[in-house]
Amino acid sequence: MRNLRIAGIGLTAAAALTLTACGSGNTASSGSSSAPAPAPSSSMAAPSSSMASGSGDGVTTNADVFGPACSQLPQGSAPGSLDSMGPQPVASAASTNPLLTKLVAAVKATNLVDTLNSQPGITVFAPADPAFEALGDAKFKELAGKPAELSPILQYHVVGKRYDAKGLAAAGSLESLNTAGGPLKIEGSGENMTVNGAKILCGNIPTKNATVFVIDKVLTPGTNKN
Fold it and tell me: Which pTM was predicted?
């Protein structure tokens, strides 16, 4: 009888250990399957979309954007905001950007919207409205009426590879889509970076197929041929 009682105690302890082990395993499994992952906030949705569709080098997120004019962009998911522009191809994104209304008009005048939107990965140096205004309304209207003259100027602002600010600084000199216009000379870094002497007002802006740098001057082809 004593041996039977000992055996019974042993079986009971083993059963308890088995149930405990099974219980702890079920708890872990239940915890991993029933606890949903936190949903991303709207401010993160656009950058992740940009990174998924980018070509690799030069792909940026909202956290990488810098420059004094960035504060002039709409906030949240409003048209022209970083969240709004991120998932869109570059010409479509620029069309909502309040800093780039003149550039968008020029791009439309030269029928370059589809060309820019269809590029797999590019860098765009986008003159802000005051840069075009410095040319004068008469000159701007004259150029807009001559697409054959305006198109090479706009192409000089586009590089056929996607760069972020660090990549630009490392490259030093870049060739634009207007290969006859001469190289684009990059100097400085960060908020002190210039492109052919033009200051970056808001840089590293992510779009679906491009990284955009808003600059304070219209770049002139041929100025850096030597």
Answer: 0.74
